[in-house]
Amino acid sequence: MSAEARAGSIGPAVGSRSNGVRRLLGSRISGWRHSLSARFIVLSVATNAARLLVAVAILRLAGDIHAAVAGDMSAGAGRAIHEAVDRILLILLLVVLAHVLADFLAFRLGRDLISRPVARLLAATGASAPDAAGDPGGSRVDALTETLNRFRTTREAADEIARLNEELQDQIRDLDSFTYSVSHDLRAPLRAIDGFAQLLEERPATTTDPESRAYLTTIRQSARHMNGLIEGLLQLSRIGREAVQPEVVEPADMVRAVLEEHGIATDPGVEILVDPLPPCVADPLLLRQVYANLLENARKFSRDRRPARIHIGAEAGLDENGDPRMHYFVRDNGVGFDNRHAPRLFGMFQRLHRADEFEGTGVGLAIVHRIIDRLGGRIWAHGEVGVGATFWFTLPSGAP
Amino acid sequence: MTERLVDVLLVDDNPTDIALIMAAIRQSGFDGTVSRARDGLEAIELLHGTDGHADTLRPRVVVLDLKMPRVDGFDVLRQARAQESTAWLPIVVLTSSDLESDVATSYQLGTSGYVVKPTSFDLLSHRIRAILDYWVKANRSHPGWMPR
Question: Is residue A340 one of the residues assigned to a domain?
Answer without folding.
Answer: yes
